[in-house]
Amino acid sequence: MSADNNVSRRDFLKTTGIAAGTLVGGGLIGGLVGYNINGKGTATIEHGNGTTSEAAGSPKAKMFFMNERDFKILSNATERIFPKDDLGPGAIDLDVPYFIDHQLAGQYGSNSKEYMQGPFGEGSPTQGYQSRLTRAEIFKQGIAKMETEAQSRFKKSFNDLEGKQMDEILTAFQKGDIQMSGVTSAFFFALLRAATLEGAYSDPLYGGNRNMEGWRMKGFPGHQMAYITMIEDPKFQKIEPNQLGNH
Amino acid sequence: MATTLPSVDVVTVGVGWTGGIVAAECSKAGLKVVGLERGQKRGTEDFLSIHDEYRYAIRYDLMQNLSKETVTFRNNRKMQALPMRQLGSFLLGEGLGGAGTHWNGMTFRFLPYDFQIKTMTDERYGANKLGPDYLLQDWALNYDQLEPYFDKFEKTLGISGDDKNPFAGKRSSAYPTPPMKMTPMLQQFEKATKNLKLSPYMVPSANISEVYKNPDGETINACQYCGFCERFGCEYGAKSSAEITVVPTALKTGNFDLRFNSNVVEILKQGNKATGVRYIDTVSGEEFIQPANIVVLTSYVFNNAKLLMVSNIGQPYDPTTGKGTLGRNYCYQILPGASGFFDEQYNTFMGAGSLGMSIDDYNGDNFDHSELDFIHGGNIALTQTGTRPISSNPTPPDTPTWGPEFKKQSIHYYTRSFGIGAQGASMPHKENYLSLDSNYKDAYGLPLIQLTYNFTDQDRALHKFISARAADIMKEMGAKTIVPNAEITDYNIVPYQTTHNTGGTVMSSTPDKGVVNNYLQHWDIENLFAISAGSFAHNSGYNPTGTLGALAYRCAEGVVKYSKSGGALV
Description:
The complex is a heterodimer of chains A (about 250) and B (about 575). Chain A contains eight helices and two strands. Chain A is mostly helical and about 250 residues long. A two-stranded antiparallel ribbon of chain A has the order 1-2. The radius of gyration of chain A is 19 Å and the shape is globular. The longest helix of chain B is centred in the C-terminal third of the chain and has 21 residues. Chain B: It comes from Lysinibacillus mangiferihumi. Chain B: Keywords: FAD, Flavoprotein, Oxidoreductase.
């Protein structure tokens, strides 16, 4: 893995908050309006603040984050990691932040299938995760640290930073340069990056990968019963994706 | 406190491939068998929503719940061992079928060389090719002795394969079903390896090519190439596993009592005989004693060793003195290979767990090691198992790991790249072993098993050599960019590598070299058997299940034999 991230050299989103919330462009592939989880047509509402929500039958409510600022910091960070581009939507339009929020409220957030008994030793990197903190605790602390870091570097809220400035902070986290308690900032960043990709590409049943746009961009057909009739074909197969909810 | 249950002929600890085979063979022979499975019942009907990468492949829904039990790990004796808090390097099974439910299904036979590795290596290269720190030893059976059991295992599963591997041991019969389908990617590999004067053949597969009825009357369906094998169960009943073959066979006899949520915590013994096992019902918390004439340990490598250790059976291995056999010869596998990036687009998301082509030209002693500073090698394969979007984000070298360029490249190359990978054989080393941890406990108050393991010089040399061969093939296949796997340094338990852990309860010709004899019967306690990949004296350059299944049939034969004659079978 490259330790350095050159995203800071690319001012991809000029004004992250606005660009991320805009549906033009990304909507060309598949279209976001009309996505529905319950079989009823629902309309997308933009808040103009980097978030969108469904008018009805919506999974877009928070189970874990308590205030808008923290949720927006998460949203902006995931968008920098997986930005909207001419291929299709970024993390925000894919509802990745809601996916992460929902995951943090459950088994993932509480590490309930993992060995969490002490004593806790620091160990060597080859021994893996040795923190007493759960993922929920790490995210909470990490998001708060991102805000503190924005204030100390730029005297602004993380959510008011330019994209390049956000990237500078994320890169510092990735390099382990930010002091965190009970966990390294590099570990938090790795968790955030992994969760972003998980939200972009997991089945829409988890609340991310909105309207299967993540799969559509990538050419992954999702849940298909069989490829037996086409696997020998030398041609690349473009297949409209299918999700488990349509089983 | 504990309730003592009526005695039975045989009790197995764990019901996956090995427990299922022992249960099927013993119950068919008329023995009353109890199978104690710590996990839950599961089967084909539970896998209708299995095409869920996040739940099963990322969050490990079918695998061991580590909050109850895990292993501790350190690279060497100077380090403090710490618990493996999250699954990573290997994925332990739990529940009916064990890890054999979420396996890929590649079913090789180890090479004749493997079983006589010490003798044959010494003959060709002189004694001490590797030096005294490597505990190389012959197995307690040679290939020809094991051949009938390989044959039996393959027929139970309906393995699909061809007979084009010139390095394979002699077969008494052809594969039960024809090879899997040939895809464009595999054709390209076949052509490239032939150009390089190598000998490609189809990976023997337990995702089978056509509907098959096995000799026990169980039906396995035809694979649909849906791309969800590894880490998943099969919704078609088309991937051979214990729960669709040997377990129903055992149940049909009426002699098999299969109990779930039953976690064995101790092997009970009196004098030099086992008397049964003590287990906990993990739902009610009640404790039971299951007396049995014969106890068979059929759980994974780590738990078989742990149960012997916590029950004070056998002498634990001491790396300082070299004395003791329990925990010795822990081996793993190393993963040389090369990634290739192409301009053409491939249907990488289609596949089956063991759909692949491979070569054995650089496996075993199939090539000359005179000028090389390692022995053995690995099966080099191109497999098309179905890449999935969360875990597959391939990018060419120097691509950032996040941001716009990462997104663009990882999406572009998702269907334009693949790897050629080898399973590098792993040789036993005196510093790599299993023991009991003195600090950390499981949910039942027992010590966790401790793994002391690091890669060796042999591993590093093998890895480098085989990665270069994989890169040669990739070049011949026409990849635009080729990235050989980075050289290995220290073993790291975090990234997934392989669930091919072996050793610790080794099968041996003499009691000073292992824990069980060639019937998998314990050297000290004649009515106790232990079968797992822990029985392997080293790990070969193949997936272990084919060899494990053969040994399980050998073990089952030993159990039936012992039930009639008693005494040491060897």
